[in-house]
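Sequence, please.
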C-alpha cells in the first residue's frame, strides 16, 4: 500500500482493513430477500440485515446488467464511464453493436486502481460478456463461470478453476451459473484471501421465478449458505443488485409488448426510424430481448420532437424524453443514446418489430426489467455503517463507498 486513500473518478476510498466482498445479485428485487427471509430459508441474510446495515438504493436507468455493473465498479453513473446499455447504435461505425468491449469504457475501475496500488483483487462473474469490462486494466484474478474451464494465468490470472471450485462448468441458462460464482468466491477467500473481491451473478432465476416461489427461495437459500461462509472467513460483505424485476404479462400469461418499430413504421413509413433495445445481448432465451427501455433514432431533431408527443400517447408508455432530457435525468452519455428515449410502465416491455422477437423459448410468463419500475434495489452490509446522511440518495454504485468508507 502506497497511500491510505485512493481517488477514483472524483471519489475517495479508504484502504481495506479486512477483506471486502461486493456482491451484485442480478435481478434482485428487494422482495426476493423479504420472501426468502420470511420463509426461513435465508437465516444468514436475516442476521446480516438485522445486525449490519439494511438499506435500499436506486440503480442506474436503463436498469440493465452492463450499465449497472460498470457503475458499481467505477462508483459513477454511465455519464462518467460510458456504458449505457448492453447494446447500442455506434454512430461512428453506423452499426448496432454489443457494448461489451473495453474500448467503450471512459473511466477506470476502483478494482483496477486498488490492484495498481498492490491490493490482491479478484473478480468472478457469471457470464463472460462482463468479464473484460469488469477486469479492464486490472492486475489480478478475473474469470467467468461460463468460461471457467478456459481460464489461464495469462488471460485470467488463474487456471484450473473447475478443479478449484469442485463443480462442473454450468449451463449459461441455469441457477448453477450463479452458484459457481459464490462457490469460487469462497474458495478464493480460503486460498488466496483477496483484499477486494467482486462477485456478479446472472438473473436466470429471477426472469423465471417470482419472489417467494419455490425456485426463487431455493436460489436465495443457496446464496445464503455461501455468504455465511464468506462472513465466517472475516470478510466485510456489501450486497446490492444491478436492477429489480417485474412481471411483464397480462392475466392470460401473454407478454405486454409495445412493438415500437412496427408502430413507427406504420405511422411514418419503413426505415424512417431506428429502434434500439439496450437489453439485447447474446443470452435472450429468458427475456426475448424485451425490456422496459428503448432508444429511437429519428431523421433529425425537428422530427424527433414531433414523434415524442405522439409516442407519449401509446398505451403503456411511462415517459418519452428527448436525448438531452434523458441524458440529464438518467445520467447517460448523450452521444450513445438515441434522439428519443422511451421507458414503459411497470408491467409493459418494448420491442422492435414482432417479426424480430422469437418468444418460443419463453417457458413461463415474461418477467423483465429496464425501466424506472425496476430501479429500487437492496443495499445491505454485514457490518453496521456510520456517517451516511439520512437525506442522501443512495445508489447501487455506492457499494464500494459503503464497504470502504462507512463499514470499517
Amino acid at each position: 500500500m502506497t497511500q491510505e486513500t485512493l481517488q477514483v473518478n472524483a471519489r475517495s476510498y479508504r484502504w481495506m482493513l479486512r477483506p471486502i466482498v461486493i456482491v451484485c445479485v442480478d435481478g434482485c428485487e428487494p422482495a426476493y430477500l423479504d420472501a426468502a427471509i420470511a420463509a426461513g430459508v435465508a437465516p444468514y441474510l436475516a442476521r446480516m440485515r438485522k445486525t449490519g446495515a439494511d438499506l435500499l438504493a436506486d440503480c442506474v436507468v436503463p436498469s440493465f446488467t452492463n450499465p449497472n455493473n460498470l457503475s458499481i465498479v467505477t462508483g459513477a453513473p454511465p455519464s462518467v464511464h460510458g456504458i449505457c446499455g448492453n447494446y447500442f447504435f455506434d454512430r461512428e461505425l453506423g452499426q448496432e453493436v454489443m457494448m461489451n468491449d473495453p474500448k467503450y469504457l471512459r473511466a477506470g475501475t476502483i478494482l483496477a486502481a486498488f490492484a495498481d496500488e498492490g491490493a490482491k483483487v479478484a473478480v468472478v462473474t457469471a457470464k463472460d460478456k462482463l468479464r473484460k469490462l469488469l477486469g479492464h486494466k486490472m492486475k489480478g484474478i478475473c474469470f467467468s463461470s461460463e468460461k471457467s474451464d478456459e481460464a489461464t494465468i495469462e488471460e485470467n490470472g488463474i487456471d484450473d478453476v473447475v478443479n478449484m471450485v469442485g463443480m462442473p462448468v454450468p449451463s449459461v441458462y441455469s441457477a448453477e451459473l450463479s452458484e459457481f460464482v459464490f462457490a469460487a468466491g469462497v474458495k478464493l477467500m480460503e486460498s488466496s484471501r483477496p483484499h477486494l473481491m467482486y462477485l456478479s451473478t446472472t438473473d436466470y432465476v429471477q426472469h423465471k421465478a417470482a419472489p417467494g416461489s419455490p425456485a426463487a427461495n431455493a436460489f436465495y437459500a443457496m446464496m445464503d449458505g455461501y455468504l455465511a461462509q464468506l462472513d465466517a472467513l472475516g470478510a466485510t460483505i456489501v450486497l446490492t443488485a444491478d436492477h429489480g424485476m417485474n412481471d411483464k404479462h397480462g392475466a392470460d400469461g401473454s407478454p405486454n409488448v409495445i412493438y415500437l418499430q412496427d408502430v413507427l413504421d406504420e405511422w411514418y413509413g419503413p426505415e424512417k426510424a431506428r429502434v434500439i433495445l439496450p437489453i439485447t445481448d447474446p443470452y435472450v432465451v429468458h427475456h426475448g430481448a424485451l425490456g422496459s427501455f428503448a432508444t429511437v433514432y429519428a431523421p433529425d431533431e425537428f422530427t424527433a420532437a414531433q414523434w415524442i408527443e405522439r409516442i407519449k400517447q401509446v398505451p403503456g408508455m411511462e415517459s418519452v424524453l428527448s436525448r438531452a432530457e434523458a441524458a440529464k435525468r438518467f445520467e447517460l452519455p448523450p452521444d450513445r443514446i438515441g434522439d428519443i428515449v422511451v421507458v414503459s410502465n411497470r408491467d409493459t416491455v418494448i420491442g422492435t418489430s414482432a417479426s424480430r422477437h422469437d418468444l418460443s423459448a419463453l417457458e413461463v410468463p415474461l418477467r423483465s426489467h429496464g425501466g424506472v419500475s425496476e430501479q429500487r434495489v437492496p443495499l445491505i452490509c454485514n457490518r453496521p455503517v456510520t456517517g451516511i446522511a439520512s437525506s442522501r440518495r443512495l445508489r447501487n454504485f455506492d457499494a464500494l463507498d459503503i464497504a470502504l468508507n462507512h463499514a470499517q
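The two ends are 17 Å apart (CA to CA).
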